[in-house]
Design a protein that fits this description.
The structure is a homodimer.
Chain A (H helix, E strand, L loop, with lengths): L7 H5 L9 H8 L5 E2 L11 H10 L12 H11 L6 E4 L1 H13 L5 E5 L4 H9 L3 E5 L8 H11 L3 E5 L11 H9 L6 E5 L21 E6 L12 E4 L2 H6 L11 H11 L2 H24 L3 E2 L6 E5 L4 H13 L2 E2 L11 E5 L3 H17 L4
Parallel strand pairs in A: 1-11, 3-4, 3-5, 5-6, 6-7
Antiparallel strand pairs in A: 2-8, 7-8, 9-10, 10-12
């Protein structure tokens, strides 16, 4: 029963969680995961410098943070060669997306994304009463031309592209992304989610231009920086757009320890470079394991490999269930035809050993091994 | 210039921060604060158990948290003798208030609060286009009868009461608060902000009844638990109300280290009891210092003492500025007649030594010492 005092919009919404945590699955299914390969986390964790900074920051946890985070925003700005005013920091990209949709999307406003792309973006759009228009992938890629065409057609306030893409691991080159930015229709803002960009070639990143009001880009400390549980990420945009987050955001919402960790993490580029190499090796190993089992790994510019299981969604869901039952946590795309795949995050060597051992068993469970 | 693509509501909003951080004041005013007595923080910090749990949780920061936080919600529920389903956890009371207003307040809906009470609540109400109706304090107390009368008159969706009250430090007894709950008009939800309740006598807390749909209560780890920078707090309400936060909240928004710290903090009741005693001694000392300088401390059920400076708001503002210039960070109420006061948080003994030394100097700066 919904509370009749709540807004008509809220009463119309389901009570959902975009993702079920592995700990929750363990409790519900009575399994223990020996390999945590489903949430695109980074098991190598953050830089030792970031860990030390976070441990030290525990001592100051009694203090509120600083709402505008000048040190962190300054360091982010210096890294990208932009002004701090072009940077807004929030509680993960999820938190920033939640604020963004409130800034741009009134009830009934159109928003465009790809069918099968990031569910939490869709969740936040629904939460403000936006009307989602979904464009199919072109093969395993989001389709920039179709996205902007649909945005123009429906008069969208926002059009979303993730580059690299989750859940498929595919990436467009910078020219294609820049062409999309250049063709965003008047009245629409392009949301460029670059959560995985550190794993991707530099040639996939268009130059940052904070004089351009057509795009906002999001980066995170959850992926390559190994701090998913810290909830800290940032947006890069024209200063007037970045600054507008201050109108409605939870100003003191970013944990102080997370701020300290993020600042220190930015100062350890060798660690980041090493992580990116480790992840590349892990992707190669996942691809080999998939191939050894007759499955087809898709090329990936992220810290996961999306594996084509060669049949339909029911087959992939059955394989995912078999892997879950055998203690391997993976996830998969939610929408056909992407759902012929499962998505396997790079784990530790030991976790990938578990994958190598259990994937053939899971396939055999299906009578397909 | 506002972005014409943003919603009409957002375009109408100013870009503001409800509170200026002391670090920001230091940078802007060129001062260094020797006594940080303005943000109602707890300089004694969290329980050593909570510190240890947070330091340990740094090692797991690469993992996302669990959206529904079963361990923490279970511990909170056990503490209050309620069901975990009656508990919702969020990024500080500020974060929870931000979600609450989105659940209940559509553009143009009425909300009632006291004139001079918590500015961040007002900020969030404005952020969803709610229309604030403000009731004057009765003396230095929020006025429950006037609040519910106004709520009935304007058909308010929410009516806010903080007990104990910030910024005045005053507290109502449980019977008065229960009487307010019992008289909340149909169609309205009472928001009972109990951020400071651990410092107040038990006789100020009405029994928790999660079958009652008329009220939601908020508690925090920012004040008596000494974790302001962690951003973690909880709401207690009928399970259908608490559960409705899941419709729009940032499910993975609470930092994992904060969750670990909160859970451990709940397990150290002796520390909490000790903190409450230390704070009571600190309040007594602030009251004595105020009296020694010819000022009038108001009774306080919080970790701050609101001090009547005996004249008007201009006088109190001048005293606050003089204290700031002399390295003492304090804040003050924003609205007459409350703004005849300054608000001094309990600090360490050393910080209160600084206060004792500099308050007479600051008064002399005004030519009033």
């Amino acid at each position: 029963m919904s509370d009749p005092r709540q807004t008509p919009l809220v009463r119309s919404l389901p009570s959902t969680v975009p993702f079920v945590a592995p700990e929750r699955l363990e409790a519900e299914r009575g399994v223990t995961f020996d390999a945590r390969l489903g949430a695109n986390e980074l098991p190598f964790g953050p830089s030792p410098k970031a860990r030390a900074a976070m441990a030290e920051a525990v001592e100051d946890i009694w203090k509120y943070g600083v709402a505008d985070m000048p040190a962190l925003r300054g360091a982010i700005a210096a890294r990208h060669g932009i002004a701090p005013e072009a940077v807004t920091v929030g509680e993960g990209i999820d938190g920033l997306l939640g604020t963004l949709v409130r800034l741009y999307v009134a009830e009934g406003d159109a928003v465009v994304t790809s069918d099968g792309s990031y569910p939490t973006f869709n969740y936040h759009v629904a939460g403000v009463g936006g009307v989602l228009h979904k464009v199919p992938y072109r093969g395993d890629f989001e389709d920039p031309e179709a996205l902007v065409a649909r945005a123009a057609e429906v008069g969208a306030k926002l059009v979303y592209l993730s580059n690299p893409n989750n859940p498929m691991g595919s990436v467009h080159d910078a020219a294609a992304v820049q062409a999309m930015i250049d063709s965003v229709p008047e009245g629409c803002l392009m949301v460029l989610d670059e959560a995985y960009t550190e794993f991707a070639p530099a040639s996939s990143r268009p130059e940052i231009d904070t004089t351009d009001r057509r795009v906002i880009r999001f980066r995170t400390f959850s992926k390559a920086y190994g701090m998913a549980g810290a909830r800290i990420a940032y947006g890069i945009a024209h200063p007037e757009i970045a600054g507008s987050f201050d109108k409605i955001r939870n100003h003191f919402g970013v944990n102080r320890i997370a701020q300290a960790g993020a600042l220190a993490a930015l100062g350890d580029e060798p660690w980041l470079a090493d992580v990116v190499e480790q992840v590349a090796r892990g992707r190669d190993r996942i691809a080999r394991i998939a191939q050894q089992n007759g499955l087809t790994p898709l090329p990936s510019a992220t810290n996961f490999v999306t594996v084509d299981c060669g049949r339909d969604g029911d087959h992939a869901r059955a394989l995912l269930a078999a892997l879950t039952a055998r203690g391997v946590f993976v996830r998969m795309p939610g929408v056909a035809p992407l759902d012929r795949c499962i998505r396997i995050s790079v784990g530790t060597e030991a976790e990938l050993d578990v994958l190598a051992e259990r994937l053939p068993l899971a396939l055999r469970d299906l009578g397909a091994g």
